[in-house]
Amino acid sequence: MNTRFLVGLLLILTVGSQTYAQEQPLLHRLDFKSPKQLHRFFKYTKGKTVISGHRGTVEQGLTENSIEGMEAVLRHAPAFFEIDPRLTKDGVVVLMHDATLDRTTTGTGKLADYTWAEVKQLHLKDRDGNTTGYRIPTLDDAIEWARGKTVLNLDHKDLPLEQTAEIIRKHNAYSFVMVTVHSPEEARYYLDQNSNQMLSAHILTTEKFQEYKAAGIPFNRMIAYIGPKIKPENQELYRLLHAEGVMCMISAAPTYDKLETKEARAEAYRAVFADGATILESDLPIEVAEAL
User: Fold this and answer.
1) Which of 33, 45, 67, 108 is the most buried (most CB within 10 A)?
2) Measured at the alpha carbon of residue 184, what is the angle toward residues 169 and 88, in degrees to the nearest 5?
3) Distances (CA, A) of 30 to 45, 54, 95
4) Residue 137: how many CB atoms within 10 A of its CB?
5) CA distance 150 to 22
6) What's the mean pLDDT when you consider all of the chain?
7) How far is CA 147 from CA 21, 34, 80, in A?
8) pLDDT band at 121, cuts 50/70/90?
9) pTM value?
10) How many helices (H) and strands (E) does the chain have?
């Protein structure tokens, strides 16, 4: 083959790969190789801020609980993501917040009435109700996508705790998957399955904090969700939880995300961190990153 031709072909391939790399923004990654690294990352440090995408994101025409939405956020900032596992009729675990399909997909009725073969034919809808090209992902796919990229926080919907624990074990995902728990009993169940399991605990009151403490739940592998807004009662929770090394999360999804202007939302996001929270969960994580 002509040497000049080979050189020209090599140049074309090199330039082409560089162009592709320039067109594909690098992802900001949260890449932990062990559960201990995950635990250390989420240990409270004054002034540290972390973003959580609530159901991924709904920005820029993206769809909640989609892999595409989560990956888009990582092009703007490192973040972790709260997602919602639910069961199809034949027991496949997919990402879906609602028990029904109508709001977020082109389907109708209860998710539990459809098999995976039927569900995977549906398209996701954006927050304005527009049909997109995105499909409903399985939890298995989401976990393997997240490996080396980010951390997933599995909310508790209709999936039994036993099945959730088994899925995490199957994927050996203890270094990048945490579970939402609403009581010390749920926390103890997961820790009995694997003592390294990272927890996202609902601790909305000082009484609930004392319940976790009395139950002997270790605070060095947990974040705490303390509510959806700034309020005076938060200060005592900050004091108690920060003393245990626990980062506190406020979710703006039902509150400050609803403010009418981007400027008002940005001001509210900054105020959350100024008040003492170190994790902000939002439907608009790209906006949060810009606000910071």
Assistant:
1) 67
2) 45
3) 17, 17, 21
4) 21
5) 22
6) 93
7) 21, 12, 12
8) very high
9) 0.91
10) 11, 10
Amino acid code (one letter) for 288: V
Nearest C-alpha neighbor of 42 from the set 201, 167, 154: 201
Give the model confidence (pLDDT) of 147-203 as tens digits. 999 999 999 999 999 999 999 999 999 999 999 999 999 999 999 999 999 999 999
Sign of CA dihedral 212, 213, 214, 218: positive
For the domain with range 33-94+138-291, which CATH number is right: 3.90.550.10, 3.20.20.190, 3.90.25.10, 3.30.450.20? Answer: 3.20.20.190
pLDDT at 16 (0 to 100): 43
The rounded distance, in Å, linking the Cα atoms of 286 and 283 is 9
Give the span between the Cα atoms of 152 and 71, in whole angstroms.
12
Rounded Cα gap, residues 180 and 182, in angstroms: 7
Residue reference for tokens 């209709």: 158
Average pLDDT (96-110) is 98
Q: What's the one-letter identity of residue 194?
A: N
Which residues are paired to 279 by β-bridges? Answer: 50, 249
Stretch (H or E) spanning 29: none
Domain definitions of the chain by residue range? 33-94+138-291
Report the percentage of the chain scoring pLDDT > 90. 91
CA dihedral 44, 179, 67, 108 (to 10 degrees): -140
pLDDT at 132 over 80: yes
Q: How does residue 24 score in pLDDT terms, banded at 50, 70 and 90? A: low
- Percentages helix, strand, coil for the chain, rounded to the nearest 5? 40, 20, 40
| Structure token digits, residue 45 | 């440090």
Question: 216 near 237, Cβ under 8 Å?
Answer: no
